[in-house]
Structure formats: C-alpha cells, structure tokens
C-alpha cells in the first residue's frame, strides 16, 4: 500500500473523509489503477456525502476487477452501487 493510501485509510478511521479523499486522489496520480485506492476513494466520497463521486469510483473498481476469478465483498458492494 502506498504512503498516501495509508494516510487516506488512517483519515477514514478518524472520520475525516474529505481529507482522506484528497489523499486517495493524490495517490492516483502517482500510482494509478490500484484496487485499494479506488475502494478507499469510493468509501471516502460516500462518507463525505458525494454519492456521484462514490459511484464513479465504484464503477472504476468494478472495471479494474472485471477479470477477477473470485467475488470479494468489496466488489459485491461496488457492483451494487455502480448499477444505481
């Protein structure tokens, strides 16, 4: 996990989703297309009340894992939210 992703996760735990989202988005510039990053970004946006942005990140997560051979719980939720 990248340093900015880790900071984003910590900020989510501290109930600071706006700051967490900023760190996850900064991480995407340095390390694009990472599962944990899209998941963290979606969760942060959702916690911040930005459902449109959350749905976008969940859609990216589903697209990234389209060839996965297992269905992780995170992907089940991502597919549900992305289809709304």
Report on this model:
This protein has one domain: Alpha Horseshoe (Serine Threonine Protein Phosphatase 5, Tetratricopeptide repeat). It has five helices and no strands. Helix 2 packs antiparallel against helix 3 and helix 3 runs antiparallel to helix 4. It is globular. It starts with a helix and ends with a helix.
Give descriptors for this structure.
84 residues, mainly alpha, Serine Threonine Protein Phosphatase 5, Tetratricopeptide repeat, globular
**Proper CATH architecture:** Alpha Horseshoe
What letter string, H or E per element, gives the SSE order?
Answer: HHHHH
The overall pLDDT, averaged over residues, is 91
Please give the number of β-strands.
0
Write down the domain tally: 1
Query: Which stretches of 5+ consecutive residues score pLDDT under 50?
Result: none
Enter the CATH topology name.
Serine Threonine Protein Phosphatase 5, Tetratricopeptide repeat
Helix content: over 70%
Strand content: under 5%
Report the CATH superfamily.
Answer: Tetratricopeptide repeat domain
H/I helix tally: 5
> Over the alpha carbons, how many angstroms does the gyration radius reach?
12 Å
Instruction: Tell me the span between the first and last alpha carbons.
Output: 29 Å
Category by helix and strand content:
mainly alpha
């Amino acid at each position: 996990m990248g340093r900015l992703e880790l900071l984003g996760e910590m900020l989510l735990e501290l109930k600071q989703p706006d700051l967490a989202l900023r760190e996850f988005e900064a991480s995407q510039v340095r390390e694009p297309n990472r599962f944990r990053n899209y998941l963290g970004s979606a969760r942060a946006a959702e916690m911040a009340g930005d459902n449109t942005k959350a749905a976008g990140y969940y859609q990216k997560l589903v697209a990234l894992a389209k060839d996965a051979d297992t269905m992780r719980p995170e992907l089940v939720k991502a597919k549900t939210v992305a289809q709304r």
